[in-house]
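Query structure, 182 tokens:
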């Protein structure tokens, strides 16, 4: 991949492909509206103050390059280790989706260390705070749905969808005896 990203002919094709929608693959660059539609939490290997939390458009302007070249150079400089934050759902879309009784909520964020050598100060925002934001902003503040319906969306409904028996509900039969810490 790194050698291909250095090849001018392949870079030109990538730039062309990023400019439009494609039926065979998801073009998040296009779907987010271009370089202003996503940012990086923090590069893993590059020590650049121009990139943490900035949109690709902002980084491109700072680097004085096209957004597409900036994206490819960023991937090269960071050895393809950086994640991305995509801005593609409107508040109206979120409210509509969250208010449906059949939608459940789950996250694809992994576990993180809060301190020590594995601590990373800039992770994707959904790593922490997604459920408190859902319960606080959409349930308590916006009254989009009841607390009971909201708790169901983040507990029993996703467990049922994933066929996780004995999960997502508070029932005596679902309790587990934890080993003692002796």
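Result returned for the query:
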């Amino acid at each position: 991949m790194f050698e291909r990203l250095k090849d001018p002919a392949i870079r030109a094709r990538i730039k062309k492909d990023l400019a439009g929608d494609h039926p065979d693959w998801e073009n998040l660059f296009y779907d987010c509206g271009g370089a202003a539609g996503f940012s990086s939490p923090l590069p893993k290997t590059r020590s650049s103050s121009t990139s943490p939390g900035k949109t690709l458009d902002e980084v491109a302007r700072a680097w004085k390059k096209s957004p597409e070249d900036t994206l490819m150079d960023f991937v090269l400089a960071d050895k393809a280790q950086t994640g991305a934050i995509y801005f593609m759902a409107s508040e109206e879309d979120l409210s509509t989706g969250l208010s449906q009784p059949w939608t459940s909520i789950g996250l694809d964020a992994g576990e993180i260390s809060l301190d020590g050598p594995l601590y990373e100060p800039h992770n994707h925002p959904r790593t922490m705070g997604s459920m408190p934001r859902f319960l606080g902003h959409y349930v308590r503040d916006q009254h989009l749905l009841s607390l009971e319906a909201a708790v169901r969306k983040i507990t029993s409904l996703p467990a049922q969808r994933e066929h996780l028996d004995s999960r997502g509900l508070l029932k005596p039969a679902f309790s587990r005896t934890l080993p003692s810490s002796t």
